[in-house]
UniProtKB/TrEMBL annotation:
Its cofactor is FMN. Belongs to the flavoredoxin family. The lineage of its organism: Bacteria, Pseudomonadati, Pseudomonadota, Betaproteobacteria, Burkholderiales. Keywords: Flavoprotein. Residues 14-158 form the Flavin reductase like domain. It holds the Pfam family Flavin_Reduct. The keyword Flavoprotein applies. It comes from Oxalobacter aliiformigenes. This is Flavin reductase family protein. InterPro entries: Flavin_Rdtase-like_dom (IPR002563), Flavoredoxin (IPR052174), Split_barrel_FMN-bd (IPR012349).
Length: 193
């Protein structure tokens, strides 16, 4: 049984506000082709409704699919999934199904019918591509509106991350280049002053 639970949209922005490496999943319009890629550059740009931006090369297969279908998902991988994260970021999906090649299981999102990764990931955000005249056509930025989100309740609950020594394999990762990553750090809490 999945540990994933829906995340209210008011907390969806917290799923990536700490800058983790992400995996972007996409599909073609009719759903027969799909792809997954790793991305290190994503950030939030709006809170209500939640919107984000992901940098995806204009020539990438994922970009082709998400522009055709108008939908994509952002999946947040856990430390235990680092080998798959690096693998899918190192090869193109043109001519192969990276999900099958790297043994990545997916479930279909409920709203936009996008493949999302729960096994190996700790959160996902289902997004509708926002057409941006000008920049999107010229640059590698893709804007998305988050329409639903879910997270693994063992590490994200009540709208907050809970990184501990006991759930280290579920910590998110941050890419440093050349196959090197770091884990999300030790949590510290601010006190009222």
């Amino acid at each position: 049984m999945s540990e994933f639970r829906p995340v209210p949209l008011e907390y969806a922005t917290r799923l990536i506000n700490h800058g983790p490496t992400i995996m972007v999943t996409s599909r073609c319009k009719d759903g027969r082709q799909r792809n997954v890629m790793t991305a290190a550059w994503s950030t939030l740009v709006e809170f209500d409704p939640p919107r984000l931006v992901v940098v995806i090369n204009k020539e990438a297969y994922t970009r082709t699919l998400l522009e055709e279908s108008g939908v994509f998902a952002v999946c947040v991988p856990a430390a235990s999934f680092i080998d798959q994260v690096y693998a899918v970021g190192s090869v193109s999906g043109r001519g192969m199904d990276k999900f099958s090649r790297f043994n990545i299981r997916t479930v279909q999102s409920t709203g936009l019918d996008i493949p999302v990764i729960e096994e190996g990931c700790v959160a996902w955000l289902e997004c509708r591509l926002l057409p941006e005249p000008g920049p999107q056509e010229r640059y590698d930025t893709c804007f998305g509106e988050v329409v639903s989100a879910a997270a693994d309740q063992r590490i994200f609950r009540d709208g907050l991350w809970n990184f501990t020594d006991q759930n280290r394999e579920l910590h998110t990762i941050h890419h440093l280049g050349g196959g090197n990553f770091v884990l999300s750090g030790e949590m510290i809490h601010a006190r009222q002053i």
